[in-house]
Automatic annotation (TrEMBL):
The protein's name: Glycosyltransferase
PANTHER family: GLYCOSYLTRANSFERASE, UDP-GLCNAC:BETAGAL BETA-1,3-N-ACETYLGLUCOSAMINYLTRANSFERASE-LIKE PROTEIN 1
Gene3D superfamilies noted in UniProt: Spore Coat Polysaccharide Biosynthesis Protein SpsA, Chain A
Alphabetically ordered keywords of this record: Transferase
Domain of life: Bacteria
Length: 292
């Protein structure tokens, strides 16, 4: 069991006062000892940082070091993550949203398999839960990790099938990629993953559950209003598609996925034009027209 390497656990938060204690406790309770705790907050308007700072006062000695960063205004997840990365001192980095939970052996198991096999990035299985309990295990594409980096790139171009909350990175790899792309504020993981694969970095899988993912209640990512389409996220995805994916998808002959994306964009554009309400007559009719 590896115990020499320092691992930085980077918590990214935004209005996470309801859940951040659970997240921090899950980091404190890791079986692996050598952990640096880094907390980067994206300008929360609630008591997230006050609660976190009080927790750190009581529990900070468990970690080799604790560092925090607070954005004065909300700048989006990629910027928030990049600010936290600048504070990370470990050889490895584990990112976690401030409402998810690491299982007790998460760090140890990820580190052991990376050190043993000289892997720079690994994904694992995760279980989703909400306020009512366990929702179920999320899909885990074991066959994806048997592919070459080039084959993985083509597969990921078609569909983002990876469990982002489980990603465990060698710090050098993220820094070589120049961190998260801040041009796409709602898509911190996916653009960087495609960049890694384009550069020949193969992804690996750990066939164990290491993370409990809070579903539909995440203060970092969820859309909590009556809109059917999250307009900001949709516009970011659409722009990323035309700027970064369209050409490579043509080159890699991903025609079916290409047409599926274009169909989805048209569908959501029309939803927005007709009011963008979850239960409106227009939304129901358009959904039946496109997908039934």
């Amino acid at each position: 069991m590896a115990q020499q390497e320092l691992v930085s656990v980077l918590v990214i938060s935004y209005n996470s006062e309801r859940y951040i204690i659970e997240t921090l406790d899950s980091i404190k309770n890791q079986t692996y000892e050598r952990i640096q705790l880094v907390l980067s907050d994206d300008g929360s308007r609630d008591q997230t940082m006050k609660i976190a700072e009080e927790w750190i006062q009581k529990n900070g000695k468990r970690f080799e070091s604790v560092k925090t960063h607070i954005n004065e205004v909300n700048r989006g997840i990629p910027n928030n993550a990049n600010q936290g990365l600048l504070l990370c001192e470990g050889s490895y980095i584990k990112l976690i949203a401030a409402d998810d939970i690491l299982r007790e052996e998460c760090i140890q198991k990820n580190l052991d398999i990376c050190e043993k096999n000289h892997w720079d990035i690994v994904f694992s299985r995760m279980e989703a839960f909400n306020s009512k309990g366990v929702v179920g295990e999320m899909p885990f594409p074991l066959d994806f990790f048997e592919l070459s980096a080039g084959e993985q790139y083509q597969r990921l171009l078609n569909d983002n099938i990876l469990n982002a909350p489980t990603a465990f990175y060698k710090k050098k790899l993220i820094m070589d990629m120049e961190g998260f792309d801040e041009n796409y504020i709602y898509m911190e993981d996916y653009p960087m993953w495609l960049k890694m694969l384009r550069n020949g970095v193969k992804f690996y899988g750990l066939n164990e559950i290491t993370v409990n993912y809070r579903r539909n209640e995440s203060s970092v990512t969820s859309n909590q209003n009556d809109k059917f389409v999250s307009v900001g996220y949709f516009k970011t995805c659409k722009r990323f598609f035309y700027q970064k994916k369209f050409g490579p998808m043509i080159a890699n002959r991903c025609y079916r996925s290409l047409m599926s994306n274009l169909k989805e964009f048209l569908y959501k554009d029309l939803i927005i034009i007709f009011g963008n309400k979850k239960d409106s007559r227009a939304t129901v009719k358009l959904t039946k027209l496109f997908y039934h």
